[in-house]
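name: query_chain
kind: protein
chains: 1
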Amino acid sequence: MMQPEAQAALRQVWLKREKARYQQATTANPQQAAAWRKLSQICLELGDPAAALLALDEVLALQPDDPHILVDRLRILMILQDHAAIIATADRLLARMPDSVEVGLCRMEALHQLNRPKEALAECEHWLGRSDLTVVQRMRALAFQVVLLTVLERFEEALAAAEEGLMLTPGEPVFQLNRAELLLRLHRYEPALANLDRLLNLPDLRFKALCIKIQSLVGLQRFDAADHLLREAFAEYPWEQLANVFDPRRVQRAVPVDGLHKRFTARGLHLLWFFQRQAECDWSDRDAVLADINNLLQDALRYRYVAGMEPHRLLSLPIDPALQRAVAQAQAQAIAAHVVPLRAALTSTIRWPDRRPGERLRVGYVSGDFRNHATAHLARKLFQVHDHSRFEIIGYSLWPGDDSRYWHDIVNGCDRFVELAGLSNAEAAARIAQDQVHILVDLHGYTGLARPELFALKLAPIQVSFLGYPGTLGADYIPYLIADQTVLPDWLRAGFTEQPVYLPDSYQVNDDEQPVAATGLTRVEAGLPERAFVYCCFNGPYKIEPTVFAVWMRILRQVPKSVLWLLTDSSRGEANLRMAASQQGVDSERLIFAPRLPKPDHLERLGLADLFLDTWVLGAHTTASDALWVGLPVLTRAGGTFQSRVCASLLTALGLTDLIVENDQNYEALAVAAAHQSAHLQAWRERLIAQRLIRPPFATSGFARQIEQAFDALWALHQAGDPPKALYIQSHGHD
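structure:
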């Protein structure tokens, strides 16, 4: 008897012959519908659905009203996953066969795939309302109803649909898994654990069931049990697969093949969820987390690089600077240890350069944010106005360009621009080392697209942190930080491992050519009351914490004809802030939420406000510069951390120190007084507009001269063989 493999091979030979025969037949007589249909079937069996579709469309041209041909077409389109064409074909079929449940369900699935969940749900509920569905069809529709309601975040209704599915087919594993996932989303952790152990034994469902069990245990704060399962999960599944579940909101980027992976722990997941809630202004467990923060962060000190405990997240919490430093140092140590083998492999490649007499100082800026991003909004012009006769400026991009004005201007402003996106750390390091850079500037720190491994390899004799990260990196391989004496006074230096390089004005560069739209936007068009006093804060919602919000509400209560204009990132965050306002005796309609806009339009609308109110723990940085650029006074409370003193730095440089307060009471009093004393407000505006173009940090060329002095001083220190120490750059006037 012939073996199955031989039979299959013979059939392939026969099918190819038949395909050639029917191609000849349809060429000879294109009106043969039967030949076209047979050719379509043969192409499909040969694994060429695109050719099968072309042949079938010839049949449809000859027999446009044949529902059997349309059904065949629908099947092929499902193989091709051409969802728009599936909907169009299903519509043609339903016009002829309005009771075809299968066609309706295909249409529903296609709508879902096209990210049209509301339409898909309407289709689904239409078919579920019929009484003639088979059990299999009803199960399929219910399963999709669960998915669609979940996508729409209608979790209670989705749970009811899953329960209905379980009533229809008791014990059905998929519905049990749906039920567990929805209970998890609804924070009903104990019920979510029921039946999961059974699902763990089903190979197709094990991964998702394991993740739900881990997350439910974390929700119950049964951290040891969750950690045990986390170790089991990471031994069984790839890191990326699990990271996509546990931290889906992280920057979606591929970790380099030789990059350091974060560790996931139960306490880290607990904090990760906490920070997600903070971003939506859900402060329900904030006090409990802050009370236990020292214990929770022990994982960061033990494992050193833990998701949910990254130093950049902690900047938004009022924690001890010594603890912030310890966590940063732990992460830096993990990164340094990780690159030891790579550093050994690159020993012959990484050679620190000398500097020949008359040679330009080579400065490399490393960032993934040379695009429409806050960092580029500030630094766009700096690259252009560097003294290129004395400094060779090289941009090293860690992320692809976005074709924005920022990208093109930075690329053109550099002497050389090198794209490192997609390269491994070894490849990127070799490329940077090739350029023999004297000073390597880290514009990321621990944010977003950072590649700290490159700096841990010590690619340049001088490595310095600048602009992108308002805290300590805790890394001995980046011994310097560009700062000023307002953001980092002597009494704060104990929280930093870096030696500060103090610029004479503000450390934060700004673009003195930022375009502001001139559409004539009015308050009414922006959704604001025409005659109200408009307080605003366009900081990211994650920076708003309950203490400062309570003061804002007290301000509104004392200024009856006032509103608070805020940035919105989510409907949930907006609802939480409205609820908090109501609870504090303020009409929630006095909170006005604005969407994100292109930068020039955003700058124009900022000019409609009367006073910008800064947040306290993590203050405004680029957002403060935006406000000041359009002449909007900013009120800030200078705190006890770098990240809470950036507004104070900018205001000090501009000579507006009377807008800086040191405590809650003065902040509240000055905000209220501003609404009642228009002369003060006008005086602030006039002084701001007079100063912004003649003083660093808003005079970009003047700032460039200051940071170039810093680079010269750093190189002189290196040439002298001296250890890192604080440097103080002197002002030579404002140009």
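note: The mean pLDDT is 95.
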